[in-house]
Specification:
Helix content: over 70%
Number of helices: 1
Shape: rod-shaped
Number of strands: 0
Oligomer: single chain
Largest sheet: none
Length: 65
């Protein structure tokens, strides 16, 4: 009777460990998603600034002709 009870206890502990790890993975994925969204926003802002600078540079080049 000892071995079946030990197997059940170890199975339960294994499931508990998997549950804890699943929660940690979920939390890290959410954090990574927030970082990706923030990076995407920063890239969009930088692209806009680059576009405005390129337009200004093009106007300056046209004025030199």
């Amino acid at each position: 009777m000892f071995w079946p009870m030990l197997a059940i206890a170890l199975g339960f502990l294994g499931l508990a460990v998997l549950g804890v790890l699943a929660v940690r993975v979920f939390a890290e994925v959410r954090r990574l998603g927030r970082q990706v969204a923030q990076s995407s926003q920063r890239i969009n802002v930088a692209a806009g600034e680059l576009e405005r600078s390129a337009e200004s540079l093009a106007r300056t080049g046209d004025a030199l002709r």
